[in-house]
Amino acid sequence: MTEEFFRYTDQLVNFTKADKNLLASALTFRQVNAKKELVSYDKQTDELFFVLNGCIRKYYVKDGEQITSYITTENNFIGAFDSFITETKSKEIIETLEACELLVLNKKDLDRLYVEIPLMNEFIRKFLEQMLIQFKQAQTSFILESPEERYKKLISKNPDILQRVPQHMLATYLGVTATSLSRIRKRILEKS
Fold first, then answer.
1. Cβ contacts of residue 131 below 8 Å, gap of 6+?
2. Which residues contact 133 (CB under 8 A, 6 or more apart)?
3. Is the pTM higher than 0.70?
């Protein structure tokens, strides 16, 4: 159950076997049905999630409209990091799009692991650096690329996303309407 998780961590740091055992003991396995909120609006969260199986999105609600800000699938972390770190209410919602299998790490256990596993500090730093780079790349993409270019990049990196995420959610993630996304998809099909 933790093999995929440690494949992920091994890309960033080299935890010892003892470190991995401590870390594994802090993780909780959770199965969650589709369309369930992991983090709710205006509620504080003390959990981070590592996706073993499934698809999850993070979104905001503005003027009654859901705006998807992040989509992730297997072997990635997701969380409402601002709420988790600052212990404040979340302004975002995290929802399962499919039935999911997750490893959950709560803040109390993470704080304990910082003391028990000195390398944990480096792991979290490197993880946050990667998250910052992803955020910056997404921001740059919105500034420099057209919606069609963003769509092409998304499907080249994650082609099965089209079968896993409803079109209206993909549209808000790309910063366009569902109608515009339909036109983009049609243009791409006509060109191929």
1. 81
2. none
3. yes
